[in-house]
Design brief:
Number of helices: 3
Shape: globular
CATH topology: Glutaredoxin
Number of strands: 4
Strand content: 15-25%
Distance between the termini: 16 Å
CATH architecture: 3-Layer(aba) Sandwich
Oligomer: single chain
Length: about 80
Amino acid sequence: MKVKVYSTPTCPYCYMVKDFLKENNVEFDDIDVSADPEAAKEMIEKSGQMGVPVIDIDGQIIVGFDKEAIKKALNLG
């Protein structure tokens, strides 16, 4: 399973997503869109959103810290 988290260092919900994934032992790529304009462009193309966090779980896009949607996409509990 491939998980990417598009985030910024100033976004509290981004930290919540990353902490949640770590607690559930889910490996993920943390992509700082504030430092990487190409990644920001990719995120906007995938999600249609400028806001973070955007989570890409095997191509399924979740915008924001939607714990239930993340759990469902990862088949947790």
